[in-house]
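We modelled the chain as a single entity of 327 amino acids. Its sequence is:
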Amino acid sequence: MSRLLEAVALSKHFVLGKKGVFARQAPVLRAVDHVSLTIETGETLGLVGESGCGKSTLGRLLIRLLPATEGNILFDGVDITALSAKAMQPVRRAMQIVFQDPYGALNPRMTVEDIVAEPLLIHGARNDGETRAKVGAMLDRVGLSARIGNRFPHEFSGGQRQRIGIARALILRPKFIVCDEAVSALDVSVQAQIVNLLGDLQQEFGLTYLFIAHDLAVVKHISTRVAVMYLGKIVEVAEKSALYAAPRHPYTRALIAAVPATHPRERQAARARRAGVSGDIPSALHPPTGCRFHTRCPLAIARCKTEEPVLSGLLGGHQTACHLVPP
């Protein structure tokens, strides 16, 4: 399996407000802080973590919807970090995104046909019968119908709108798609349909996904590997089966323990794994020193408060950023 995308020490810091008269510097929110990861061709990398940990920001950085503060992004062997808008245009055909909100992601004043055709027109296609035929075929492929092309987004349910968003993302036949909480706003039954659709499309078109979600059950179903993010940092990366069966980082254990269990023994074990983890995620404006999880970790030692752990382990294997886990 070849490497499609690589992030190297990638950071995104947002400067909040302006420097005041008596302030030494404006406050900085460290949404993503020196993140390195790889995504292999044809795989689905699940990205999980609490709200506000930087998952969506990282997804947008990888496809250059946001400029990086530091670090590099390599896509298909090319460093795209500093490419101009003109140089990025052919690259953008190969990377797309499906947004979380199927209600806000579609222009309410455009017909479905125009929404799905827009990427083709931006990239030089003619507004002719051939383009409309491609749009109709893609609508059919995502479980809708070419006959709905002249209707508007408000006429459809949330699941149908998300299918329209998927059709728009696929119309340029990309290699890589960021699914940013693509099913979290949908009913559970509709979530299953969309996840199954994404799996079928991946097989048919040879797609590679970054699947961002907070629902670990959904991530377990669709992902090949899983990366766990906490307060702007990746703390664990592993194959799906290894991560769910034997999580190494205390934060990962707490996340998996928080998944509702059906059997009494499973519930008791989950409570035991979750014991000791309390409090809210700290502010990214003032992240803790050392390991960022040490303020909530029941296993923290003195070293955790002063020395930041490095993500270590076999590249492409099980990697963990924790002083208590042997490298």
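As a brief sanity check on the tokenised model: The chain is about 35% helix and 20% strand. The CA atoms of residues 174 and 307 lie 41 Å apart.
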